[in-house]
């Protein structure tokens, strides 16, 4: 069984951050949904704050170097991407946008993407649809229908009984798992795997 690889990008600035917490919730929901489909998976999370200087250097020079080059290879080579950003002044963070700007234009072509965002109040949630979704649509990513926004109050207390956030996370994880499962060409087969050996050809003559 081929293991599905999930890359998670968190653009949270604090530590700990609600952005990372949402990213972890989304990845946990995805792995659970993949397991329900009898698919194994692995998750690798990348904190953009840890490579912020490399991102700025790449924007200035036009070339990713060091840890950033390895990070880009891991993210663009994954079977699916979870991308979560805090919202500032009704849009994604500058760090998040800078990271997306250094991605090669076709590097996420057809890759399933699950979007998440965090902010102070629910009125900022529409930024996922008018800001973040068009960004990844431009990159020809396969963005799942359900995106997830978490406001500050969503993390307080034990309001999961009345809070729609857990159910939205579960629904988004299910859609994301479906896209990963159905993705054509996510694991291309070896074109030579069915070529008979020399001994087999001799036996067939």
UniProtKB/TrEMBL annotation:
Assigned keywords, A-Z: Flavoprotein, FMN, Oxidoreductase
GO molecular function: oxidoreductase activity
Domain NADPH-dependent FMN reductase-like residues, every copy: 5-154
Database matches in NCBIfam families: LLM_duo_CE1759
Coiled coil: none
Pfam families to which the protein is assigned, alphabetical: FMN_red
InterPro entries hit by this protein: CE1759_FMN_reduct (IPR023932), Flavoprotein-like_sf (IPR029039), FMN_Rdtase-like_dom (IPR005025), NAD(P)H-dep_FMN_reductase (IPR051814)
Protein name: FMN reductase
Domain of life, per lineage: Bacteria
PANTHER family linked: FMN REDUCTASE (NADPH)
